Amino acid sequence: MWQMLTKPNLLIFLQASHPVGGARRNMSWTLVEWEEQQRRLAHAHAHSDLILDTDQMSIEQVLEAVILFIGRGNFQK
Questions:
Q1: Whole-structure pTM over 0.85, yes or no?
Q2: So where are the chain's domains?
Q3: pLDDT of 2-54, one tens digit each?
Q4: Secondary element (H or E) of residue 12
Q5: Helix (H/G/I), strand (E/B), else coil: 52
Q6: Cα–chain-centroid distance for residue 46?
Q7: Crossing angle of helices 31-40/18-25, nearest 10°?
Q8: Residue 57 to residue 59: CA distance in whole angstroms
Q9: Pick from 56, 71, 53, 69: which is nearest to 13 by CA?
Q10: d(CA 27, CA 73)
Q11: Are 62 and 54 in contact (CB under 8 A)?
C-alpha cells in the first residue's frame, strides 16, 4: 500500500512489540491481530531504509535517530 499511495524517497519503519504498541496507542489488539498487521507490513519492512525498534525509545530518541540517519545520507533512492 505504501507504494500505491506515494513513492517515498525514504522509508522508515517504526517497530513496536505487541505489548508496547498496544499500551502506547491504547489499542486492544489481540496478539493474532498484531501478527496479522505485521504480516501486512512485511513488504514495507523489507524495503525500509531504516528500521527502528522503538520499544525502549522515547519520542525524542526516535526523532534523534531519524535525524541522524538522514543527516548521514545513509539511503539511496
A1: no
A2: 9-72
A3: 677 778 889 999 999 888 877 777 778 888 988 998 999 999 999 999 999 99
A4: strand 12-15
A5: strand
A6: 11
A7: 100
A8: 7
A9: 53
A10: 35
A11: yes
